[in-house]
Amino acid sequence: MRIAVLGTGGVGRALAGRLAELGHDVTVGTRDPAATLARAEPGSFREWADARPAVGLASYPDAAAGADVVFNATPGDATLDVLAAAGAGSLAGKVLVDVSNPLDFSAGFPPTLFVKDTDSLGERVQAAYPDARVVKTLQTMNNSIMVHPESVGGTAFVAGDDADAKAVVTALLAEMGHADVLDLGDITGSRGTEMLLPLWVRLMGVLGTAEFNFKIVR
Ligand SMILES: NC(=O)c1ccc[n+]([C@@H]2O[C@H](COP(=O)([O-])OP(=O)(O)OC[C@H]3O[C@@H](n4cnc5c(N)ncnc54)[C@H](OP(=O)(O)O)[C@@H]3O)[C@@H](O)[C@H]2O)c1
């Protein structure tokens, strides 16, 4: 499958690396590919990409245009700008997997949510791109667990309006090792999963690690 991962941070790298390892044709999206590759300090995207020659790098619009499935792995407060740069035409008809969280760090740590209760970032993305098929998933766990859930187990939630898109995403989740995928229904299911983030942040402090996950026990 041709997959674009918009975002060169920890989440974008984890998803792109794992999906490429699984045999997918993966291109990472960034604002300015030349500028991103010019940063060569330890821990840079350049260093990561040099070790993964199969993963491509392109601008947001070029990455999205060439993909069947597009992951948004950018900060919540940049997400709508990133998708605007990718372009509505490049997103139309595509499965758009949103793993972002609406975190507001303007008052420091812990962050608050800039949308909640009666709306969500997942819904805002779907409303802004009605021709894209948005699926909210994976943002309730650290990126290491997104791509290797067997390390701790737990539940991956999916929410979205398009059943076929959720089936595509559920299959990708299964490839990455997610054995427990819980469908929360339409995209308004994003509200609850995004509002788990204050609890997630608190748990990280209490447990002293990000290596944990939520698990729904029936
Ligand atoms: N960290 C985790 O394990 C984790 C877990 C669950 C969910 N999430 C969510 O996943 C998303 C990505 O997390 P992350 O830690 O990987 O993010 P990050 O490192 O902060 O994001 C970096 C990416 O965002 C792009 N970006 C940043 N500001 C931008 C702007 N103003 N306009 C356009 N692009 C911009 C950067 O572009 P360039 O490439 O051009 O520099 C880069 O590609 C976030 O929404 C986060 O809340 C994170």
Task: Explain this structure.
This protein has helices at residues 10-21, 33-38, 45-50, 60-65, 76-86, 88-91, 121-128, 143-147, 163-176, 190-194, 197-207, and strands at residues 2-6, 25-30, 56-59, 69-72, 95-98, 103-104, 112-113, 133-137, 156-160, 181-183. It has 218 residues and is an alpha/beta fold. The strands form two sheets. It has an eight-stranded mixed β-sheet, with helices on both faces. Strands 6-7 form a two-stranded antiparallel sheet. The radius of gyration is 16 Å and the shape is globular. The N and C termini lie far apart (34 Å). The mean pLDDT is 98.
Element layout with pairings:
Blueprint: E1 2-6, H1 10-21, E2 25-30, H2 33-38, H3 45-50, E3 56-59, H4 60-65, E4 69-72, H5 76-86, H6 88-91, E5 95-98, E6 103-104, E7 112-113, H7 121-128, E8 133-137, H8 143-147, E9 156-160, H9 163-176, E10 181-183, H10 190-194, H11 197-207
Parallel strand pairs: 1-2, 1-4, 2-3, 4-5, 5-8, 9-10
Antiparallel strand pairs: 6-7, 8-9
Helix pairs in contact: 5-7
Bound molecules: NADP nicotinamide-adenine-dinucleotide phosphate (NAP).
Features:
18% strand, alpha/beta, 218 residues, binds NADP nicotinamide-adenine-dinucleotide phosphate
What's the quick description here?
The chain is built from 11 helices and 10 strands. It is α/β, with parallel strands linked by helices.
| Beta-strand percent range | 15-25%
Count of DSSP-assigned helices: 11
The whole-number mean of residue pLDDT values reads 98
Shape assignment: globular
Which small compounds were modeled alongside the protein?
A: NADP nicotinamide-adenine-dinucleotide phosphate
| Secondary structure: helix percent | 40-55%
Q: Could you give the order of the helices and strands?
A: EHEHHEHEHHEEEHEHEHEHH
N-to-C span: 34 Å
Strand order of the largest sheet: 3-2-1-4-5-8-9-10
Radius of gyration: 16 Å
Largest sheet, strands/sense/barrel: 8 strands, mixed
What are the low-pLDDT stretches, counting only 5+ consecutive residues below 50?
A: none
Quaternary:
single chain
Count of DSSP strands: 10
Quickly give the structural class: alpha/beta
